[in-house]
């Protein structure tokens, strides 16, 4: 059918450069000298034509339209552009391109955002903030360790919102640790910032103790099925007894063998942890320290932004951060399982100006083809990789090696950030002909990568032949910036810093190619390496490790390198020329560790057999490009492989202005223990070599720089060309991100006295260009705060922490910090782990006695003062006197050395005995006590207590009062410390500062008398007066525990008819107490219905092979829920007899008043009451339809293999409905549901659950009678 167009429509089409064309060509493209265009928009439709006013909805529709276009008229001159209009495109599968989707050099295919707009392709699903609700489930709340966090944690029901694929947390790490890894699991983001899977410790790590069993190694067959065991020295695991999927992240062996390993078991009595999987070299201690932290712990949600996913019930728990609370940005979980873009044998296709965000795998995988370009894109928040060229991801179907032939692919001008593994992987080139792949990443900003898979996942990985990394900025990662394998790669003009921040024995650029000596020819030139390994040993700049050969390192700048600029571990033909090393500890380290030709040497045991096999297999490379390009291979076995002598270090500049060089560095600027390095023409300068402005970090050389005269022929390094240039990422994105606000996640926090904790404000948005925040405290004597937002609780009271934006002081926030007494200890030091703030030097040291105890030793004539100020305090410590105490010898205690000077508590050995005195800052005596004997005898250990409150000072020696005085002119606060005179030394230990305690004056209870039913559980609340009492702990006592018991939290349980008195007793003063009388009523005559007929009714139980009827009983031997379908049951207790099989980690259960039979309560909104009977505990849950945990009690009623008379039901009572579970005469559960709008029906079906493991069964039998 023909179409007619109005003159106006024709004019509009011509004006826009778009015209629908017939003859089988897809409608919607524009044709002309600029090529053809299709349009895609989030509100479009794939049944549209793809025109500007009639856009497609998905890129697939545009791709298919291009295929149709190619099959009819062919590609137009200038190619085809697919414009994606502004908005978000949710992706749940890969956008796949094949050879059929290729363009040509003259007619490329371009997918890009419409000019001035940004199209966002997302593999995430946004969660509505309104779906987050406070956690009320007591079973969840009791697991959360931090009481302050319990009231702040929110819950989101993922399953109820249709999200059921949470992924699996799995083993991954170095080498074969990743052989069994699965696709990364669902992750949570707020405003594009990755949140933290709940972990402990929140910051930093802990270490293993003694190793009990190293477990298997990589050479053992049970590597993936058995782990080793180690002792731990921390106490936290005792609080994780309900956690069943805990993972450790860290190093358990060599420093490069990073591991993510599951905990198989914890023995809290022996304090051991057994891992699920083996470590590559077994669990061990070596020269670099081990470390780890634990995560995936609901118990440890205590920091804003921490989350946990209950995969069984589909629930997300979150402690919200400031961005969440202020509504800034989306709340997103990652859902895309596939690579976002998958190109196989496609050529001349470009992706431009697109935002690719969120995914569990990789943003773009490019296999085969040529000239696929990713330009001016923003790629972030992918758990695996950003771009992978000629390398499939671990989670894709494999492709044959001969398909990995892609060449001339390009990643340019792109911002790549927050990537779980390697950011960019470039493979390609012909290893037979040495034809380069020419795959390249250039002028891109790559940072914050390898957060998920931390080992050997660099910013750029180069493999194959002839690929390139040029002009990039690469920083902030746990492992290397660039990894290199293969031949003839080029690494040029890159700015690389803050790399290898977590692990040791690595480099910013790292190679480990000793086993493949034909891999040579890579050039590393004109790069800027800086601020690398400054505080971490074993982190180098360029590191050809383990006999790597044939590398050129020229024209680079190394600045602030904490270890080596270049470290050559026994490589050969490593050429380092024309480099500049500034403030580098070791410019060039010709490492000798593996050198040697003695028995068992490294070469003969680890390399020579491989080399011989390699050369034999390749006929010594005769007739191959290798011998032509690397002629030294012809003499490979003639050269000295045990002491390599083919390395050169020439014409380099070494200048140390602020950092001392290693004493092992020679006059040529190298560390060369065996003197094998050909080093000449180098200048170890004692003056600025001629930089434009070293202080400003400008390493351009002046025209008259001294280096040109000192090193003839030295070539100026083009410093101005290093790094990125122009706009990186989305052109339409702002050059700066404005700071909208500063907010604390919580308006108030409570800290225990003497503790430190981060009380940090968050910049909003988190990625603002200027995020600096300054902190201050309204009362530093109560709560001090450092520049990083860490608060220290110094004294009981309240202080306000203020956070102010450094860029815009008008943006500020406040957080009230309340310091609670806790145990009253403000500061304690036993000197077992250092000085803890007390100064340590030659005059003030830590000495170990014969018992291994550490003492703080102050020599005569020296003083030491506390690391912080104190106001009112109790100081307690031990002091050890020397063997000789001559007359006149003395020591004093500084009392609050502050704005008014110090008071002095003074002890002196006198002719007559000894003297104690208290003096003001002018040494006017305020109190003196003379004793006729030595109060502190030579060689004795004495306990001193000093109580300071306002002007008053009281001194106790070995428990006896010695002196009381007052200093009206005392400083309000100040340092406290010691001075020693006339003695060789004094030694101090167990120095403790405590608060002056506020006594308890009374206790009140929230009720004076009340009534319970048997089995009913009710909390009793006690209030301690005054509100600021120092010790608010309560001890609970029942006068008749057999009638009514009470636990340590004041929760009472009725047991038998009668009355009891429940008493709350002050822990500080047992004379202060309050009581309440509780009466337990006789058991009510609740109506009972025998289940006997139903048990024998074979026709009306759920039809399932798991249900059988032996001996006129009903037996459930398979997993699932099985219901009695004939009738609904209501307000009576059901009586029957039940036999429980083994639990084996599973559970049995009964559901009452269910909407349906055969469906668990968690399926399709099936409401009702569910009692879950586990081997160790019994849970009562209501499903309305969401789950609420009503009660958890220990299971002392139903043992595996036992038979029990059961009464169970929900009966109407005044004030609601009461759930009853009895075993014989024992009331197991008696819980009132007082929900006034209870949606659970008055009548419903009875279901029996069997989720025990190992094929175990539960069997119901007829009860004997109603009585």
From TrEMBL:
Signal peptide: 1-24
Gene3D superfamilies, per the entry: 2.60.40.1080, Exo-inulinase, domain 1, Single-stranded right-handed beta-helix, Pectin lyase-like
Any Pfam family hit: Beta_helix
Keywords: Signal
TM segment ranges: none
Domain BIG2: 738-814, 999-1076
Domain of life, per lineage: Bacteria
Protein name: Ig-like domain-containing protein
Organism listed in the record: Cohnella zeiphila
């Amino acid at each position: 059918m023909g179409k007619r167009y109005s003159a106006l429509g024709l004019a509009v089409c011509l004006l826009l450069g778009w015209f629908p064309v017939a003859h089988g060509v897809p409608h919607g493209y524009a044709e002309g000298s600029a090529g053809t265009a299709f349009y895609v928009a989030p509100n479009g439709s794939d049944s549209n034509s793809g025109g500007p006013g009639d856009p497609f909805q998905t890129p697939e529709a545009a791709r298919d339209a291009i295929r149709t276009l190619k099959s009819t008229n062919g590609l137009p001159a200038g190619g085809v552009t697919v414009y994606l209009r502004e908005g978000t495109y949710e992706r749940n599968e890969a956008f796949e391109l094949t050879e059929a989707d290729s363009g040509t050099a003259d007619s490329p295919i371009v997918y890009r955002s419409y000019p001035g707009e940004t199209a966002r392709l997302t593999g995430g699903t946004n969660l509505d903030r309104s779906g987050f609700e406070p956690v009320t489930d007591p079973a969840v709340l009791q697991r959360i360790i931090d009481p302050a966090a319990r009231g702040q944690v929110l819950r989101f029901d993922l399953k109820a919102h249709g999200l059921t694929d949470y992924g699996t947390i799995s083993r991954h790490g170095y080498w074969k640790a990743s052989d069994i890894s699965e696709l990364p699991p669902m992750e949570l983001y707020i405003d594009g910032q990755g949140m933290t899977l709940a972990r402990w410790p929140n910051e930093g790590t802990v270490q293993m103790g003694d190793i009990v069993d190293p477990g298997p190694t990589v050479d053992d067959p049970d590597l993936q099925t058995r782990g080793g065991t180690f002792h731990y020295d921390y106490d936290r695991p005792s609080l994780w007894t309900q956690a069943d999927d805990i993972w450790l992240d860290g190093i358990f062996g060599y420093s490069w063998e990073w591991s993510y390993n599951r905990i198989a078991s914890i023995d809290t009595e022996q304090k051991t942890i057994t891992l699920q999987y083996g470590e590559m070299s077994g669990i061990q201690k070596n020269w670099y320290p081990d470390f780890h932290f634990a995560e995936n712990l609901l118990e440890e949600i205590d920091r804003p932004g921490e989350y946990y996913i209950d995969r069984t019930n589909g629930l997300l728990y979150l402690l919200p951060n400031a961005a969440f609370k202020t509504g800034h940005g989306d709340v997103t979980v990652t859902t895309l399982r596939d690579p976002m873009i998958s190109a196989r044998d496609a050529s001349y296709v470009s992706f431009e100006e697109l935002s690719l965000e969120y995914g569990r795998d990789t943003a773009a995988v490019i296999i085969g083809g040529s000239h696929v370009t990713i330009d001016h894109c923003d790629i972030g928040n992918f758990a695996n990789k950003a771009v992978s060229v000629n390398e499939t991801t671990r989670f894709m179907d494999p492709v044959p090696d001969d398909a990995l032939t892609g060449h001339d692919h390009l990643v340019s001008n792109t911002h790549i950030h927050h990537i779980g593994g390697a950011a960019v992987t470039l493979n390609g080139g012909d290893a037979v002909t040495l034809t380069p792949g020419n795959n390249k990443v250039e002028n891109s900003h790559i940072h914050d990568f390898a957060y998920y898979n931390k080992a050997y996942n660099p910013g750029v990985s180069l493999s194959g032949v002839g690929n390139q990394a040029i002009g990039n900025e690469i920083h902030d990662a746990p492992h290397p910036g660039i990894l290199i394998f293969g031949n003839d790669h080029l690494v040029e003009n890159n700015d690389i810093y803050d790399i290898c921040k977590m692990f040791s024995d690595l480099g910013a650029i790292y190679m480990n190619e000793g086993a493949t000596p034909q891999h040579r020819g890579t050039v590393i030139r004109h790069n800027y390496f800086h601020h690398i390994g400054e505080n971490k040993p074993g982190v180098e700049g360029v590191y050809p490790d383990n006999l790597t050969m044939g590398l050129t390192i020229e024209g680079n700048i190394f600045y602030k390198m904490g270890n080596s600029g270049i470290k050559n571990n026994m490589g050969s033909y490593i050429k380092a020329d024309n480099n500049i090393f500034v403030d580098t500890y070791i410019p060039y380290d010709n490492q000798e560790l593996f050198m040697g030709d003695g028995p068992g040497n490294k070469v003969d045991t680890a390399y020579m057999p491989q080399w011989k096999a390699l050369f034999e297999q390749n006929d010594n490379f005769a007739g191959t490009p290798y011998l032509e390009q690397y002629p030294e291979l012809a003499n490979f076995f003639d050269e000295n492989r045990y002491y390599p002598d083919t390395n050169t270090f020439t014409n380099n500049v070494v200048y140390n202005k602020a950092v001392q060089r290693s004493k092992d560095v020679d006059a040529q600027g190298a560390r060369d223990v065996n003197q094998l390095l050909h080093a000449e023409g180098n200048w170890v300068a004692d003056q600025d070599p001629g930089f434009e402005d070293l202080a400003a970090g400008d390493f351009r050389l002046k025209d008259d720089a001294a280096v040109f005269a000192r090193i003839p022929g030295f070539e100026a390094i083009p410093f101005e060309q290093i790094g990125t240039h122009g706009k990186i990422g989305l052109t339409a994105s702002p050059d700066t991100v404005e700071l909208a606000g500063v907010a604390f996640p919580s308006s108030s926090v409570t800290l225990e006295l003497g503790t430190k904790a981060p009380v940090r404000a968050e910049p909003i948005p988190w990625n603002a260009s200027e995020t600096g925040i300054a902190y201050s405290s309204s009362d530093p004597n109560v709560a001090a705060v450092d520049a990083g937002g860490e608060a220290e609780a110094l004294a009981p009271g309240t202080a306000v922490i203020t956070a102010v934006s450094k860029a815009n002081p008008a943006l500020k926030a406040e957080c009230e910090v309340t310091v609670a007494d806790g145990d009253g200890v403000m500061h304690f030091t036993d000197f077992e782990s250092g000085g803890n703030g007390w100064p340590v030097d030659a005059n003030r040291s830590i000495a170990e006695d014969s018992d291994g105890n550490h003492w703080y030793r102050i020599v005569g004539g020296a003083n030491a003062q506390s690391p912080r100020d104190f106001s009112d305090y109790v100081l307690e410590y031990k002091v050890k006197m020397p063997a000789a105490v001559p007359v006149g010898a003395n020591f004093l205690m500084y009392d609050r050395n502050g704005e008014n000077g110090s008071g002095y508590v003074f002890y002196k050995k006198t002719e007559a005995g000894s003297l104690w005195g208290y003096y003001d800052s002018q040494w006017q005596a305020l109190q003196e006590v003379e004793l006729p004997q030595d109060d502190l005898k030579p060689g004795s250990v004495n306990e001193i207590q000093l109580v300071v409150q306002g002007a008053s000072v009281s001194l106790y020696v070995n428990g006896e009062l010695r002196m009381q005085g007052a200093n009206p002119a005392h400083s309000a606060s100040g340092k406290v410390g010691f001075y020693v005179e006339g003695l060789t030394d004094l030694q101090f230990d167990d120095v403790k500062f405590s608060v002056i305690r506020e006594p308890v004056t009374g206790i009140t209870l929230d009720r004076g008398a009340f009534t319970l039913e048997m089995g009913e559980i009710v909390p009793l609340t006690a209030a301690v007066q005054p509100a600021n009492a120092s010790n608010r702990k309560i001890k609970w006592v029942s006068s008749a525990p057999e009638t009514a018991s009470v636990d340590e939290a004041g929760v009472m349980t009725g047991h038998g008819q009668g009355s009891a008195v429940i008493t709350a007793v002050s822990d500080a003063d047992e004379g202060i107490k309050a009581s309440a009388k509780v009466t337990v009523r006789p058991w009510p005559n609740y109506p009972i219905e025998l289940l006997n007929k139903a048990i024998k009714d074979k026709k009306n139980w759920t039809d399932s092979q798991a249900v059988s009827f032996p001996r006129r009983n009903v037996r459930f031997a398979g997993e699932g829920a099985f219901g009695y379908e004939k009738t609904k049951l209501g307000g009576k207790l059901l009586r029957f007899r039940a036999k429980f099989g083994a639990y084996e980690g599973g559970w049995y259960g009964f559901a009452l008043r269910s909407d349906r039979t055969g469906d668990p309560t968690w399926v399709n909104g099936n409401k009702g009451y569910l009692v879950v009977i586990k081997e160790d505990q019994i849970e009562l849950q209501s499903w309305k339809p969401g789950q609420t945990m009503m009660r958890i009690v220990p299971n002392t009623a139903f043992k595996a293999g036992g038979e029990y008379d059961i009464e169970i039901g929900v009966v109407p009572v005044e004030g609601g409905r009461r759930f009853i579970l009895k075993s014989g005469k024992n009331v197991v559960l008696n819980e009132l549901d007082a929900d006034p709008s209870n949606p659970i029906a008055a009548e419903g079906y009875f279901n029996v659950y069997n989720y025990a493991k190992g094929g175990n069964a539960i069997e119901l039998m007829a009860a004997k009678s109603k009585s």
